[in-house]
Amino acid sequence: MAGFSLARRLRAGETVFSAWCTLASPLAAETVAREGFGAVVLDGQHGLWDTATLIAGVGALHHAGSASVVRVPLNDFAMVSRALDFGAEAIIAPMINDGSDARRFASVAKYPPAGERSWGPQRAMMLQGAAAATDYLRAANEQTLTLAMIETPAALNNVEEIAGTAGIDALFVGPYDLSTSLTAGRAQDVQAPEVERAIDQICAAAKKAGKIPGIYCRDAERALAMAKRGFRFITIGSDLGMLRESAAAMLKALKA
User: Fold this and answer.
1) How far apart are CA 117 and CA 101, in angstroms?
2) From the candidates 14, 27, 46, 166, which is the catalytic residue?
């Protein structure tokens, strides 16, 4: 099959660095991807993506040679299967706090017998190069990835149960919500000692369960540090951040 590059790379033991896009611009996502990112996250939780732009964005990333990952809105499990039908290769689901949440997530992302995903991946089949329905069906459960976000004290307490849930392929650290919740809203320091300990705990739980450890990072320096600590799916910054930082640097040079 032509597609499913992200699962293939991660299951082979590679570390994959991913961009993160919030602006609901398929062109911006494609432009970032063509710089060489192996994957790009389209953020449907806090970003501006809607159904139409997600469909266009997934297609744009595929044609740029990059895997599309969609973060769905909180508790929007209906969007999980829709985004996979659009051709997304992986889904990030926020606020997965216990085994029950994890099982609900897996059930809508995986076909029977692993789950209850409804059939209808016409766009996904085209993008993945599946000429016959059975080709996609045989590959989908293994090659489309579920990333459960761990970002609350409850999730941290249940992290081994979440990691051990059938149909969950990866744990993904949301460091800003994790920092906020661990301090009861007093701070957002993603490098505070208690947050760093939680990050290592999540990574260890993923590895123990044979799952992929993932994390969001503010910048490349932090991403490289997380790779050394064992994370293998690492997202960096955002399209909006890149745009603002580039504009600020340009203006600073003009005013020098």
Assistant:
1) 16
2) 46
Give the pLDDT of residue 1: 39
Neighbouring residues of 1: CB distance < 8 A, sequence distance ≥ 6: 128, 129, 130, 135, 139, 143
pTM beyond 0.90, yes or no: yes
User: How many C-beta atoms lie closer than 10 Å to residue 180's C-beta?
Assistant: 19
CA atoms within 13 A on the CB side of 156: 19
Which pLDDT does position 2 carry in this prediction? 55
Q: How far apart are CA 159 and CA 208, in angstroms?
A: 11
Q: What is the pLDDT of residues 67-94, one digit of tens each?
A: 999 999 999 999 999 999 999 999 999 9
Q: Is 46 a catalytic residue?
A: yes
Q: What's the one-letter identity of residue 239?
A: D
Q: Which fold, 5-255?
A: TIM Barrel (3.20.20)
Instruction: Let me know: does 117 contact 154? Beta carbons within 8 Å.
Output: no
The C-alpha atoms of residue 150 and residue 163 are separated, in whole angstroms, by 10
**Per-domain residue ranges for the chain?**
5-255
Please, are residues 66 and 38 in contact by the beta-carbon 8 Å criterion? yes
